[in-house]
Amino acid sequence: MATSSRRRIWLPIVIVLAFVFWYRHAHSSSGPSPFNVVDFQIKDYQSKEEADSQDRAGSFQDRQRPYRIGLDYQAEIEDIKNRPAFQQQQLSYDELQDRIQQFIQWDRPYTDHWPAWHDYDNADYDPNRWEAMDREYGYYVNNTVQELQHHGIGPEPYLPYPKYNSESWRKKWHGEYVPCQGPRGETYGEGDSYDFVVRGYRSSSENFPAETVGSAKVLHLDRDTCFDKQSRYAPYGLDDHSHKSKHVKWDTIPWGGLQEACFEKNEKRFAPETRKPTLLRPSKHMKQSADPLDEDHRRRKSGTDGKQYQSRTAILIRTWEGYDYKENDIQAIRALVTETSLLTGGEYQVFLFVNIKQREANIYEDETVYKDLLKRTVPKELRDIAILWTEQVLEDWYPHVGDWQVYWMQFMPLQWFSKQHPEFDYIWNWETDARYIGNHYHFLEQIAKFSKQMPRKHLWERNGRFFFPGSWENDYDAFLADTDEQILNASALGLIDEPVWGPKPYAPFQYPLGPLPPTSAEEDNFQWGVGEEADLITLQPIWDPAETDWSYRNHIWNFIPEVRPHFSPENGNDDGFDHPGFPTIPRRTFINTVVRFSKKMLHVMHLENLQGRAMQAEMWPATVALQHGLKAVYAPHPIWSDRQWPAWYAEAVFNADDGIPAQWGQQLDSPYNHDREANFGGWSWYYRSVFPHVLYRRWLGWKAKDWGWDADQAKQNEADMKSALAVGLGRGADETDDFRMCLPGILLHPVKNVYEGADGG
């Protein structure tokens, strides 16, 4: 969706590119193609060690078909190119633009709106067109508890965990898994303890709407189990009076103590240097811990018996002084602690990471001040998992940066936490307004496994592209083949830089701390990086903002000495800040701050901040990873939409490339530009979307207002659907109990103000 002048400029290039593609296709040899991608079927995914849940609970994996998201080494890429999913993509840029122009001719309404409707009457794109697409009501009518019960399907304990202590498990891991105690005093695995975990309905997802973006199949996420509000949250306090469990005085539950006791029981599974109590009191002291660049190898190294130590992961739930904790917030936190920590023997540990806005508060040295603020800002139940911090510690640690506002320096406090708590190999940054309908451990582990098996070759380029399964017949092999084809052809024609291969320092004096490639890119058969843990995992694409109109692309601190943004009441974002030297600085960014870091990643970010260098929050981690040669992966988790997007149009909008192959989202037609970003408004995972809020409220059986110019008509359509009685029309719980929605594992964000009386819009 570029201007006509730019189309004329690129037309000859596109013709040349098409010729090159035809020539390579026609003259390919019968031997292995240089485009082969590695087979990264998750190892032992079907083995008892990795896949089975506890016998008594049953597992979804024994019903799940294996799915290969790469090719065998001997397979030829030409086989992939002959698939319909690959061949249907061969539409020229001009043909695509013509199709878009026809599609965006529609009867625009005359109402107040942003972006303004009629600003696009004569434009070659329209970020509002999606609002006129048909709404997707399949979330509300195709999976209800009533329908499942009619087919004899009831909820069962849902435990997607390894088969701990099995023979195969013992061969791989040090120590023994020891079951832990839950909030009711029950020991998991004994008696009726599994009555108090999340329960799921085993149900085919055939009638449920397909993902718009990403794929559960690719990540081996379970789509054949769904959860209603009772099966998901009853163990964690939802409708306590109706749950068969004994009443729990939740405000007396020591979640921190339960996690510590669980870890202590299982400490021999973890490296010796991690076996120490977790200290919650913050400190300004910068500890001189062991070099994390070597720790991953040392901690996980095998002894003479070939066994490994289990890594430890912290989950930091970001919150702040003044946050209003709703009951559903706390229920979600209880679920997160139980599913990731208590049921795994301490593989994860959950913290409430609280930003105290009083910068001068002496919480680091005055225990009375600390306890007073803890009491005033954190609910009693969560106090022994809370860690308080202020922006002042960031200024003390990184004085040369010149700015320490958490809005811009979102991950500085994670660097501080990592240095204070070197026992954790990985840290997830989590948000209070994120919800996962499903088991948290299952989601986080599958994301990590996928990322670990991704090869480094073309990784930075692949990271920038959305996978739309409807555009590819859910054929991820074909998608990867096309992606790699575009990367190599565009590079050969000089349309893009050579694919990233190793570190990309911004200046000769910057010493990269990541590994150097073991061979040339041409000699590597998508093998380097396979089996290597990711240093950075994101849940949205990682892309180069330099040629886009993304608002924060030039928010760069001190890469050029003394050049940085300056914020004022008159110009709070320092809009227009730029410098002639910025185009030479390699950078990448991503949207959303729910991400996983390795300790190595945070250490290198820490070292850069010590030198005074920084960038806008979401641009900082990916840029450091790029410049230092660390492994960063975008995990294409499934995302749904509240509208029925034509797959081709979604591909054209969100993977727009301005006619330059392999530049997905990285040119002047980027979907991340200010007005074009409105296209994300109906996604289940995007910070500007309303759909997560609406879907979650209806899943809870509460009122929710549809958003959009056709909201009144949407409400009437919904009222006409018999099975939608419980999804936002305010009927009583008893009257509509059987019509509860049952949703598969869906990650939602943002979900704010989660209480029944809130405005559902």
From TrEMBL:
Q: Where is this region: Disordered?
A: 273-308
Domain of life, per the record? Eukaryota
UniProt keyword list = Signal
Q: Name one Pfam family in it.
A: DUF3405
Signal peptide: which range, if any?
1-28
Q: Which InterPro entries match?
A: DUF3405
Instruction: Provide the transmembrane region boundaries.
Output: none
Task: List the PANTHER family.
Answer: CHROMOSOME 19, WHOLE GENOME SHOTGUN SEQUENCE, MAJOR FACILITATOR SUPERFAMILY TRANSPORTER
Q: What is this protein called?
A: Major facilitator superfamily transporter
